[in-house]
Amino acid sequence: MFAVIVNSVAIVIGTLIGLAAKKGVPKDISSALMKGLGVCTVLIGIQGAIAEKHILIMIIAVSVGIFIGELTDLDGKINRGAEKITSKFSKKGGGEDFANAFVTSCLIMNVGAMVIVGSLNAGLLGDFNMLYTKSLLDFIAGIMLSAVMGAGVLGSAVFTLFFQGAIVIFAETLAPILSNAIITELNTVGSLIIMALGLNMAEITKLKVINYLPALVVAPIIVAIAL
Predict the structure, then answer these.
(1) Most CB within 10 Å of its CB: which of 29, 112, 177, 224?
(2) What pTM value is reported for the model?
(3) Which DSSP symbol is given to 128?
């Protein structure tokens, strides 16, 4: 849970800096930072996947997971849902502006593979690297969003604390009843997803990473059947 608290604090600090500056980080600097963090994210993914022993299981899990994600258009549905929620608060005005800032920042910081995989890694393996990386990203996002949208971004820190915290606690609850093989496979598949996310962040690829998430459900099922 400490990493989740760090993430929330990073959002608060970033938001306060953005509110004080009243202008965002220059676009070229923020773009360079995001690309650099993307490269670091790829390295984190490689480190997590390098110990994989059951390559065939990993390939099948990822392939089936992507097939399910593409078939159901998971990425598109989540993105369209996020856009609809944001559009409801897009009207100008005091209360609406605050709500728009809150909803938009919550979606940006809590919808995606990094939240799910990072929280699962924290709960199952005690590996907080991904959540710390996300904290840096959210710190930067907090500065840029609050400079444009205002104080409503602060609310996303509270939402992040409870949302990510719930996933971590859920994973910690599951850890004792999952076999080492299942946890290892979840870590490997999750690491591959993180690598894909890092490639997108570095603007090397444009993969629909959310469509990869079903692989996290498929992997334990295959392990339970095959091993």
Answers:
(1) 112
(2) 0.76
(3) -
